[in-house]
User: Fold these one by one.
Assistant:
Number 1:
Amino acid sequence: MPESFLNFKDSGCSSVEYRASPQRMFHQPSLHRSSVCSTFCTDGNVQECLLHITQEMASLGLSPIWVESTRPSELEVVAVLNCIHDLIQLHLKDLRALENMEVEQLKSNSSIDSLQITSTQLKEELEHYKRENNGLHERERQLQHKVKSLQHGLKNEKEEVQKLQSIISTRAGQYNHEMKRKEREFDKLKERLNQLLSDKKDRKQAIDVLNRVGRADGKRSLWKTEKTEAKREEEMYKTLLNDYDNRQRDLLQENAELKKILQQMKKDMVSILKSKKSTKTDKFERFQKEDDDDEEEDALNSTKHSVELFSDDAREQLTNGVRLQWRRLKNHMETLDSKVGELPDRDYSSVSGQTQEQEMESLKLEIQKCKDFIQTQQQLLQQQLSSPCGEEVTLLPTKMQQEKERLEGEWETLEEQRQIFDRERSNFTEAAIRLSHERKSFEENRAMWLKYHFLNLSPFPDSNKPEMQSSESPFSIFEAENNPGPAAENDFHSLCEGSRTKAVSASSEDRRQ
């Protein structure tokens, strides 16, 4: 805000600077102005006041009201009035400018308030949009997860459809094969019937039996006429067709039973394979799948071959043989699982790790004891060096020599123990490596034996079984599992002896201390 400055000098006083705002000056009461005027100009300082007023007027760019050449009493009234008018105009102009500035300030304050309100609203909208964006991102993530799950389900459904299509195609092939076979058999039966009929018609005359044996029911036999012959032929055809239908039903029933047996075998095989541990390699699983496929193919071939056997004895022998062999296989696998479960679950690697940690802890304790002993010796030496007196001064060199020799001997023993510890650690690591290799070879032998077992076990009694090598027998595997090897045993015994010697040496050192 503009301010007016009034500098005036009183007589016998220093100059005073008076500052006041235009509004304050405009609204001041008349009494105050009269007092200021009365104190500003007196009879004694008229010339000085005129000079001061002319200077102020010149600084404001107005015409002077008094010139030094004229006398003070001779003032120009017109110039004074003009100056007063100009001053009033300047004052009004300043007031208008002040009002305009106040209005502008109010406008700017209102605009600032409105801008602050809009900024807060925009911030709130931004936060709201951010929350909406986060919600949309979360929804998008959920939708993506749902899409992935649906894709996974679609993939599984496609696989199921492919499996069902393959099953339908195989069953359709089997059905077509059976239909063709039965059509061939039906054609053969037709040819046989036609042959029998043609043989009857072309049969030559022969001697007829006169005295026939009577019927079991006591009824009289009918006369041989064309009707009776036709009736008998019809009955014969009916019996043949009934026998054919019964035979077909028996074959279908037998086929269904064999399919049930095969399905049960598959379920048992899957359950046995699922009960195995997860330590088997992928190679063994591939071999196992191939063995299962081979066994299924052999079973299907054998069932196809057995379908051709029409006697009840052959069918019973087949089913009983399949069930007996499968029960043997199942019992054998259960015994193997029980044997494997009875074996200790601890790995040699874990045992070796525990023993190694124990040895490391014992050796660390021994090293710490030796360090403590050396520190105590050093403290004693420092005490002896710091307080020598009398005869001890003369005996000090000999004692120091003895202590030095003894410390050197102990240092040599410590070095030997460290070397022994390094050797034992290297031996221990080698033994652990050998144990891991032997365990790996044992797992490979076990996998090969299980492969051999699944390859050579057949559900039929007349299957040719190859001979089994002695290295792949279950007894050799069990012995290898219980006896990991002479090298490992020797290493273990050597480690035990080394730990005993270290314990004895540690106890002897404690006694010396």
Number 2:
Amino acid sequence: MPSTLRSAAGAGVSSSAQCVDLYVEKVMVPRVVLLSLLVGLAVVAAFVARRCCCCCRRRRLPSPPGSVNDAAITPSKPQHQDTQLLAWFARLLCAGAVWTAIFLLSFQSYDFLSSGGGGALSRPRVVFSFTTISEGITKLRPTLDALVTQDGPGFDAIYVIVPRAYRGTPLEIPAWLVPDARALNRSDFFGIGFATGASAYHTRVRIVQLDVDFGPASKVLGALLVEHEPDTVIVYGDDDRVYPPQLCERALHHGAKFPHDAVAVLGGWISAEDALYCGRSLEVGANRVSFVGGAGGVAVKRKFFGAGRATLAAFAVVNMSKACFLGDDFYLSHVLSTNGVARRLVYDSCWTIKQLGVSYPRGGLSLAPSAHPGGANVEHYQQCIRELGRGQDLSGDGEFGWLFMAAFSHVWGAVQGLSSWLRGDGFVPC
């Protein structure tokens, strides 16, 4: 089904020890069901086609003179063969249905790893990072409260990334966060200047003040400046969200399960615009997507963005158009794709977009006014795709490959367009 963003569903929040990995229910079982349906339809289609061919062949064969009595006597054999074939087909279909039911009923949710990871020695360093601006920096307490009270060991550090100036106006950091911003330690990363230091709010909270505003993508770019260990797990998110207490442990769990992928609970498939595809993302029952959304939290490894000077490529957004600058979900996914990192949705009973609270009401790009039928987010994604080039639209990174997803999308676009046309709203495939 179409949606601006696709979210993973789950049950209510519980302690980390009771969290359940829903990969079987949300990914494996739907695929088995879909495969069973497709195989069943293929068998039925083959059987119907065979019967039609046999009927057509019999009608085309001429009946020689004087063979009426023979024709009346001999058809019992082929009819008997067809009856046997139909009986075997029915048995096969019933057996397949029974075994599929047994398969589905025998599977239960499971955890790939224990919620505590692989023990203290194998637990990687894990940090959380988000950016904020003048509007939100005074309203962060609920977000920070949730991040510093995580189950288990929790995050080793929580980075609050702020620009030195926002839209030309110096951004003032409240005293409860940093008593004196001038006391922050100046540093440099291959020419990118910033200041960093501990926060008075909590020992694990640290401030990173950027000399240059890199936009919403600063939520992870700022962490790249201070975290250099390749296997450090960086979970990045938004400043207006209240994350569940199990986020840290579940991010580690799914990160260990998919060690080479970025994992999230929000994302979708997207492609460049054409007559039947307006840029919407699609909910397809898959777990590998084109882009992931930071609102629900995204877990990556530091090495996914390169090492040393190679990291600088991710900071090119500062010189790009407003569309790429504000479309951070697409831009960061594009950076990951360029580095060969897949983006994957995960399904968990304790980590879902529906369970997130809100620390303060914020409009955001998704709610901004837009003449585009897909909304402001899609409008910016499409403008960024045009800037980067159609070959950079990430459509080939989605589940099942570009061809399947493009066919699915265009069929849905045609249905949506015809539906809107019948309502008198014109042909709008969104």
